[in-house]
Structure prediction request, 335 residues.
Amino acid sequence: MRSFLGLLLFFLSLSSFSTPKKKEVELRAFTIEGFAQGTSYQITYYAKNPIVSSKSIHQLFSELDSSLSIYKPYSLINKFNHSEQGVLMDKHLSTVVKRSIKIWKQSEGVFDISILNLVDLWGFGALKHSKQPNDLEIAQALNCSGSDKIRIKGRMLVKTKACLKIDVNGIAQGYSVDQIAAHLEKRGVRNYLIELGGEIRVKGYKQPNKQAMRIGIEQATQNINDTSIIQKVLELKKGAITSSGNYRRFIESGSKKISHLMDSKSGKPLQNEIISVTVRAKNAMNADGYDNVLIGMGIEKAFQFLKKHKKLDAYFIYRDDNGAIRDTATINFYR
Prediction:
């Protein structure tokens, strides 16, 4: 899965609140932490007893990686990428690809999972490098890209060009968060916070005080080693919040910093005024997919897009015409 991208989102410490006397406690906080999909994760849920095991979470990650991870040679997505025509999909690949194609159509190609050849070409794939490609190499990679070359026929995922390869890292981590949420809810958990590489999904309240979950949004920085500073704090009762940014993941070529975010039309790293975007949505898969759409569009087109998709809210950090860092958001983001 993709390693941490852009804006950091994290759960503000539970220790900042007082804990009632033991006899008053009905639901306790349980935490499962670990490392998966190239990043860290933390799951905090409230229950009378520890009803979700770390082993079950590990098994779920293994199942997801076996389907969706380009970093696992045996994964189903890699079988598709190395095939001549396509593969039979499992439920995970089917769900993620169908939603990705929907977002591709809505965004008029801004979000495109078929650009793995470009990602690899620029050194942001499984094999890292800092060599910049030439125009001919970019043109060849673009010729093997395009979600219009993908077909879904029943459970079959088919490609019309054998060289086409897909990468669902821009949406799969959000989907993984949703799968963890479903796993918790099947076991009767009604209050939880899940964080995976900065992708967050929340339901309910901190127990037993019934306080809203508080989430910090990190201030953008131009230095990856800078200490994190909280710029905004949100309270979220239900839903998901994810982010995309270009200031923490890049390659350096001379004095230039080359963003990992690709422009699917030019075949080159994305360049516009947006530094990061944070999206709030009903579920993490949608938030994860659309944060990539919005950062790829630029401020003006992003707000036009949001007017048509009112179930999404977003917060932007960007550079104005004078180079000053500013922020803006949709009206309902803070609400």
Remarks:
- The helical segments are 54-68, 76-81, 91-106, 116-121, 135-143, 169-186, 284-297, 299-308.
- The longest strand covers residues 28-36.
- Residues 1-8, 13-24 have pLDDT under 50 and may be disordered.
- Residues 45 and 53 are 11 Å apart (CA to CA).
